[in-house]
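Appendix B, example 12.
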Amino acid sequence: MPVLTGPGWRLECAAVLFDMDGTLVDSSRCVERVWRSWCARHGLDAEDLFRVSHGRRNHETIALVAAHLDVEREVGDLVRAEEACVDGIVPVPGARRLLGAFPPGRWAVVTSAWRRLADLRLALAGLPRPDVLVTADDVRSGKPDPEGYLKAAAELGVAPDECVVLEDAPPGLAAARAAGMRAVAVRTTMGDDRLAERRAVDDLTALCFSEED
C-alpha cells in the first residue's frame, strides 16, 4: 500500500486528502485583508473573527460572529472581494514537489472555499487541479462536519479509514477525525496548542509519498 512519510512516522494509506488554504496554498494576505475590511465595515473586532474563521465556510463564520446580518448578501460581497484579491497567492513550501509524487486517484482537495475561488487560487499558486475537488458548493455542512471528507473518499473509491488528511485548522482536523480518517496537522497558521494533533509538520517539505513501501 502507498505510504506517506513524515518526521519520525509513516502512514500506509490509499489516498491523501488536502485542505487548500493554509495547507496547499498560502492565501493569508488576501484572506486577512478581505476579512479586516469586512469587519471594519460592520464595526466588528477582526481578531475575534480570526479566532473562529479559519477552516470554516464564509456562511458559518458570519453566522458565528454576526448572525444579525443578512448572511447570503454578506457572503456575496465576500465572494466578490476574495475573487478580486489575487496578490500574494503562493504555494505552501513543498506543495508542488509533494503533489508531483501522486498518481491520479491517490489525492483530493477538500476546501471551505467555493469552487470558482478554489480553481483560481490553485491556478495562481501554480498547483495542479485534482480530479476530485470538494468545495463549499458541494456540501450541505462545512467543516467541522465530516461531509466533505467523506464525499472525497467516496469519489476516490477509498474507505475513510484508508485516508490521511492534511489540515492546518482545528475545524478541518475535527472533520477528519469525525470521518474516521487519520490526520496530520500543518503548522502554517497556528501552533500545536490549538492544533492538538500528534502528527504535525511545519510545512509540506517534511513529507514524502511513495507508491510502495
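Residues 28-42 form the longest helix (15 residues). The chain has two domains: 3-27+89-210, 28-84.
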